[in-house]
Write a structure and sequence with these properties.
The chain has about 400 residues and is mostly helical. The protein has 16 helices and no strands.
């Protein structure tokens, strides 16, 4: 069991490592492909489309072939397509590679969470937030390695090639330690035309959460530099602090969930994010705004794990399909929020436009009740006893369920 938890953690870390590495080398890939900003935007949109297409599909695949196979295949796809992106010499090649890269990201976002939820049920206690902390840490590590590679004069082809080789070998070697299909959610999903109301509410909460995350990623540095006059180096600290605080809050998220419960985490996380961003917008001070973005990251960091856990507990759908649905809706928020803020900023100014994010985080707090587990997903329902489950899956926890 501890070994399985380490392997799942490494897959989450590897997913973040790919995302962070790509983000750090976008300018170099753009130069190699000789793309204008507008054409680069089209290529990046292909990655978003790939993620949106893969999320619901991967949920169904997890039901059919198991989340272990999907997780391994998704990591290999992401690693290989990132290397192919470094070889692209034009818009078509880069868009195709990034579509596959986005698909790999979308698929592992569903399947790895299904693995985490399955292991969490075996542990009988909250551990999902620690996996999301690994993803955040991987993103930071990838960005740092990308900056280091750029400083050393290492091109994206060599950088992504070495990264892909490492992750492919690691994924194939460690993948067998992931939970087998027997450990996935045993209940067949119902085919429904209209999703359960609980899943719709969770999707809305994820939409507002990821809208706020996307806004921090795309607009924090712009706000600090253009609205407050910070230097480029200081402005970059806005999202860095946000990301570090998010990773730190996820490290303690499981303990907080056990002490206060998921509803309180979602409610107070949303309210903290709303208050922190409001402080950043009205302070008029760069240090105060930096502090506000840090607090905003701390508030939002604990929310996605509790939403995914609740999605995996939705009656009538399997864990993988529930997570896929909520991930897809949340991703729409991540994609639509930053452009909406940009359009609003053209009319109202950036400071006022970022008020959209304040409203979104308040809406998240109002939807916090959706984070309450709606059904017990213990595997005792499909096994004669916990001991029988452990014999079947060859992994067992000595920790009793609470």
């Amino acid at each position: 069991m501890p070994g399985t938890r380490v392997v799942i953690t490494l897959f989450f870390f590897a997913d973040g490592l790919l995302i962070g590495s790509w983000a750090a080398r976008i300018p170099a890939v753009q130069r190699h492909a000789d793309l204008t900003n507008a054409r680069l935007g089209l290529a990046l949109f292909a990655a978003s489309l790939g993620a949106l297409a893969a999320m619901p599909l991967s949920g169904r695949l997890c039901e059919r072939i198991g989340s272990r196979r999907v997780t391994i295949a998704a990591l290999l796809t992401g690693a290989a397509s990132l290397f192919l992106a470094s070889l692209a010499s034009g818009l078509g090649g880069l868009a195709a590679a990034l579509f596959a890269f986005g698909a790999g990201f979308g698929a592992i976002n569903v399947s790895a969470n299904a693995q985490g939820l399955a292991l969490e049920r075996l542990y009988g206690r909250s551990i999902l937030s620690s996996f999301h902390a690994a993803f955040s840490s991987g993103g930071l590590a990838g960005a740092g390695l990308g900056a280091l590679a750029a400083a050393m004069g290492l091109g994206p082809r060599a950088h992504f090639g070495a990264l892909a080789l490492t992750l492919v070998l690691g994924g194939l070697t460690a993948g067998h330690r992931l939970l087998p299909p027997d450990a996935d959610d045993p209940r067949p999903a119902r085919t429904f035309v209209r999703p359960p109301r609980a899943l719709v509410a969770l999707g809305a909460a994820a939409f507002f959460t990821l809208l706020a995350e996307g806004a921090a990623a795309d607009w924090s540095a712009v706000y600090l530099s253009h609205s407050l006059g910070a230097t480029a180096a200081v402005a970059a600290l806005g999202y860095t602090g946000f990301s570090l605080a998010m990773a730190a809050s996820r490290l303690v998220g499981d303990r907080l969930n056990g002490r206060f419960g998921p509803v309180a985490l979602a409610r107070w996380g949303g309210l903290l994010a709303a208050a922190a961003l409001t402080f950043a917008l009205i302070s008029g001070s760069t240090p105060a705004a930096l502090l506000g973005f840090v607090a905003m990251g701390a508030g939002l960091g604990v929310v996605v794990p509790v939403l995914f856990r609740a999605a995996g507990s939705t009656p009538g759908v399997s864990s993988s399909v529930g997570v896929a649905a909520v991930s897809t809706i949340g991703w729409l928020g991540f994609l639509s929020g930053p452009p909406a803020i940009g359009f609003a900023a053209g009319t109202l100014g950036l400071r006022s436009a970022l008020g959209i994010v304040v409203v979104a985080t308040v809406a998240l707090a109002l939807l916090s009740r959706s984070a309450s587990p709606t059904a017990t997903r213990a595997f005792a329902a499909s096994c004669s006893s916990r001991r029988q489950c452990c014999r079947t899956w060859t992994v067992c926890s000595s920790t009793p369920a609470r």
